[in-house]
Amino acid sequence: MAQAIIGRAPIKEEVAIKQVREKLADVILVDKTFDDDYYLLQWLKAQKLNPDKTETMIRNSIKWRMDASIHTNFAAEFSQDILKEFPIPFSKTKDGVPIAFVHMGKMDLKKAVTTLGRIGWNKYWAMVFAQAEELMIAYNKTNSIDNGVLTSNSARGIVGFVDAKNFSSLQMLNLDVIRCTVDSGGTLVNFFPALFRSIIVYNMSSAFKALFNIMKPFLTGPSTTLETYGTDETLWRGRLLEIVSLEVLNELESHWK
């Protein structure tokens, strides 16, 4: 919990955090995850610092996570074959921010939905988001510098890389794939707000753009910047290497080779 500077008036973010803490006193007693100003700030940013809407959003998320049994122990839910076929590796940027890598071009979405069903595949993504959220919380606890003043920039989301190389247009012909894409986007927006600080999508073909257009409304927002690149490797790789080292990028890509 950040300590305010003595002798100054609290700013709007600090007032909102205090108010939402009071509204969630019962939640904080049983779940210490919410006894964290940086984490509460992420939720508040998603609701434009409105404590009432933030309280509702958090309580809805808690109920949904309990009803859907969302956790981060993938081995308890999915076979090793599934985990190997659909890996979502994590690493860190040059300045230590958590980063998630998704190779959409090599994901057989139709097979995933057929194998796991819509509920199972949606749960898979929800658990990926939950794992990313844990990394975000840990990063903000140890790396945020606020000098005693909590602003909206004091808590930051993670970075996402999405490689769309070789994405097949046939995937877009499956109605369940489309439905799961929308479902997962809704999960991200409603239950994991402000999770991503930035998302970079590259190797975008005309086939992938159809799927991207479905996801785009869920990826944009006041807390997330979105960058897109085509197939010019000089451009997208140069941008990625501004963010991560070559060693880290190679390691992330190795999960999909």
UniProtKB/TrEMBL annotation:
One Pfam family it belongs to: CRAL_TRIO
Database matches in CDD domains: SEC14
Residue ranges of every copy of the CRAL-TRIO domain listed in the record: 70-257
Signal peptide coordinates: none
PROSITE patterns in UniProt: CRAL_TRIO
Coiled-coil ranges (or none): none
InterPro entries: CRAL-TRIO_dom (IPR001251), SEC14/CRAL-TRIO_domain (IPR051064)
A single GO cellular-component term on record: cytoplasm
PANTHER family associated with the record: SEC14 RELATED PROTEIN (PTHR23324), SEC14-LIKE PROTEIN 2 (PTHR23324:SF83)
Protein's name in the database: CRAL-TRIO domain-containing protein
Species classification: Eukaryota, Metazoa, Ecdysozoa, Arthropoda, Hexapoda
